[in-house]
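Entry 14. Two folds queued back to back today. First construct below, sequence then structure tokens.
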Amino acid sequence: MHEVIESDGADNAGDLPIYIRREHDELLRLKVELAMRGESAQAMLSGESSTGKTRACWEAIQSLPDNWRLWAPLSADQALEELPLVAPHTVIWLDEAHTFFMTNGSPSGPRLAAQLNEVLRLRRRAPILLLGTIWPHYLSTLRAIPSRASQDDEHANTRRLLRSVRYRSNERRGPDRLDGLDFRVGESVIPVPNDFTAPEVRRQVEAAALTDPHWAEALAKAEDGRLTQYMAGGHEIQRRYQFAPTAARGLIDAAMDLRRLGHGPELPAALLAAALPGYIGRAAYDLLSDAELNSAWEYVSDPRQCRGARPPLGEVAPAGRGVPGDDVRATATHYRLSDLLDHEARIVRLNHKVPAELWRAAADHADRSALLPLADAARTAGAYADACRLYVRAVEHGEQSALFQIRDLPGREKWAEETLPWLQARAESGDLNAQHVAVHVMRSVGRASEAEDWLWSRAETGAIDALREGVRLLGASEAGGEAQRRLESMMAQGDRDALAEAADALRAKGKVAEAIALYKRAADLGDPIALRQFVAELLDAGRGDEALAWLRTRSDSGDVDALGVRVEVMISLGLYGEMLDWLRGRISAGDFAALTEALAYFDEAGMEEAKLEWYQEAAVAGHTAALMPVADHLAARGRTTEALDWYRHTAITTNNRVAMHRVGRILLERGRTEEAHFWLNRSAGLDGEAPQAAS
């Protein structure tokens, strides 16, 4: 709730005014009654700043029994984390609900709306009472349906949360039925009026004014029946804004523009200070003395001048934000625009031109979460160079989607020269999206040959992504003869990446025979992906025998990739016996990779006994890496006497300490303590004299 102005005759400046009930209070009462009957219910109070939304919610829940609790999360992330712990008989309080659902592209807002829908639906979670407050323009944004099918509908879950609900209580008969208000009690959004002009409400106000000085002063001085706005300091804030000195007015105008353009409520002092010259003029700013600047900050932030209510720019100091800086004469790190001026900004400053200084200040000082909304606003305003700077800053803070906003940003002649070196630097550090955008921008501003030269220069130094982009342009007939010459030069020099990429391009054009030839050249140079593609193309062409023969030659020469692919091909052709005979011959010839392929096949086929047999054959053939698996397989089958021999052989042959330890454990289990301790000591790195082994 907003602070209340100090009124003459009030005993206590902190006392709340007498509460005046209006039509929305009756609807809230019915929501509370539903909750008390065991139904989950929801109400979102929509009204302008300082109309009494929060106070109405507070008054409504006073009638809840003592077993109800209040939970008021501070953010969407906190709400998501704690919502699963919320028990029945809880009021979920979302003040300024837009801050929970409009999360600047973060998934937390839509996820929270979806989870709240689920909580309100489930009987086992009931009763839950969800209360929130929201300004009308935020409500309109959340309720809006995307104009194009291609647009992301990020507020779909929130729209479901805000729609009308038909409660089970509405269908009851007898004393439990909510007579006469069935339709309205199902409305999730309850409007709160701006004024107190209804005849019955006016009579309540006049009665309250007889004993409450707050109401008495508001009734006498407020305009158009806007009494709560007056008591919240609205009149004083408007007066301070209207008669503000030049620098102070500039700070407030900058804050109002930043809020309406998408910045969060906490405005960095450095941002406001950097934007100020754009609102009062550089010449006037340069003539300001230190005392005048200090006075401007004091004017906008001193609550004493607003009769205790929040000033136009209230000081806040979020944790970990540091100090404003030596060149900023503010006394706080961040400021918050009063709700009244925040609301007014969207009306009185809607058609004001935003000075260039604000966009530049935002690029340097805006909070990270505000960069994308501000960039979008600059784009809408036609400030394309400023929008680009803001998108650049967003990318630097991890918003990769902003790169594609740069790609599609109009007015490239205004920002390309400044932005292209940055895009190229990001591309050269490995950002593939930045490379794509850089090439697109260069080509769109008539620098196609420069783009091609940059790509091929990088490709020739081994940048595979640049090579792919260059080949893509060639394949799309978007590159010149120089690009073709450089590709052919790289292939002639045996660049396997160039060969593979060219082969991909030829295959995409249907030139399969030419593609196969290039895949083979790349595979012969050791490209494992090209090897697979070469074999796949041969198989598709019905040349399986040729593929198997080539793979055998490659695997016999020690190509492990070719060995694995040949096994896959033989399995796919059903040549199981021939494959196993070939692998067994490879193992006998000392190729342990062949054993790995055979074991993988046995695993897939569930042939455990075959695995043990092949491990033993490999061990006998001299493959020491097979010794331990043989012992483990025997131990797993309870054949511990055989396992003991294999573990001992492994330990002696390979000095394997795990094998030593397992020898010791088996001997301990058999009561051969002295011999066991010898092996256990060896496994721990302790030498000792070997005891006589028992037979």
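Second construct, same run, same settings:
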Amino acid sequence: MHDDRISEQGAWVVLGGVHLLNRTAPRRPDEPIVLVRVPPQEVYRPATTVIIRWNGLGLCPTDALRLGGARLGSTRIDGGGLFPEAIAGPALRGLVGAEAATGLVPLCYLAEHASGSYHAYAQIRFHPEDACFVRTTREPVGPGPVEELRWLEPVLTAHAESSTALNNHLRYFRKHFSGTELEFKYTLDPAPDIWAASMELLKALRDGELEGCRPEYREEFQIHYTENHLFDVIGPEPDIGYASFIPTVTAGHVLKRKWFTEDAFARREELTLGLDIAPNRFKAYLSEELGLQVRAMPPFQRVRYDIQCESMRTGHVYGIFLDRCSLLAAPEVVLSQCELEYLRSRSVLGHDQDEVLSEMERIDDWLRGYVSARGWATQHTFYSKRSFLREAVALRPELAPPTSSPSLTVPTQWGSVMTTTASKPHNEDSGTGASAVAEETLAGAEGDEEASEEQLAGVPAAALAEAERPLTLELADLLTGSTMVRRLPSLIRRTISTAVFALRSAATGLQGLVGYGRDLLRTGLYLDDWERFANEAAGQRLDRGTIAPRRPKHIDLRQVTFC
């Protein structure tokens, strides 16, 4: 919780030899420890992350002590003069001596607690302009006057316990909900200039308008410009979602997959890097290598500006992304969104992952007010790129990429056949207009009788020709109920539905047959190697006892048939 009495409690930047962090040399009682008194830098107490800008510290009282307790001296040093070029400045060298100053670095940020003890924040990055610190103490340590250094031993111990994370670049990050994307979306209408909007939003975070949050240290803004070749994954059922190929700067593609049936807040996500696949092989790769049933969607260009927002209280980092997606074949078809997504957490202490969700809701409340005040959106949604592309194709079927599906021959109740080819319907519309009227007239009111000459008299000749041409549609259209199928005469429509049902049933039966065969083979292997079977079965038990099952004396199968 935020403490309004922060200014009443002391805060220091503690300086010492870098070997105290990486333990490359033993501690010596005569080496210096420097206490630089600074204005409190936390947004909350205790925080998780603390960022210090050297030039913002002003004139700081500075005391140099030896580890053994003797005082070396005192002075006042301007914050900007502590580490010019990330090297101890003249004032520090004069205070501790030239030899000791060469290895002098910020060890930690020390914050006094109301109890008289101290919280410590280990230095994880520092530069001539600033430094970043992350908390390493769960509870305050080392009660007593700061110059007595009672806190030093527990602080160095805490650092050593997390040294792998703290002493390696960016290894203090962790990710909750690994493999799952958590995201709120705002569809911006009217769409703003997303560059200007991003700069304005970034400034609001810098100015502290979102309480407890600041732009992520040295990663506050990113630019992305990508081409996306997205495929709607329509089967098998466990894999429904989308797969998108994204060209990389060097060579090859990244494959981004998301699993979801309906647009949602949480979706499984997976990236596969370094795929060397030509664009004309995208669909084949998904179908043949991954076993997916897919439908190509219109490729689009995505411009995205990422603002990285970090909670100083928890260390959780969230992305606020403003993007603009436009179809390559129709640049006027545009989707512009603002997205809020959980990215990662900067912490060595760990947090309950449910805290990510509650904090994300708080940030979303602020973001909703921000975009609403500017007239861009009023409520968050989960509207996905897949939904955008589906709707674009529904409105303008000519935008759908060409496909090459095999023809389908469907038996009819008359004993004849109807063949549907792989081309797209010509001049397909939403079901209204002269062509639709012609089809309905030719089919008759119920789809079972022929139209009379009187009924055909008012129908344009071009529309009649269009209605009488051979029916062409994709197999994928049959499975998804396209506009063309809805406009077929009802009898043929019922026949197609029956055929599709039969195809699906056959596919399900084949899948079950393969599964049973696999299980039978595995059972045979287990019976052939009883010890392996027993060991694997034991590993799945909830109650892990000590009694090992004996090898069976007799196995008998009766009245078993396999067709």
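Quick look at the second one. Residues 490-528 form the longest helix (39 residues). The mean pLDDT is 81.
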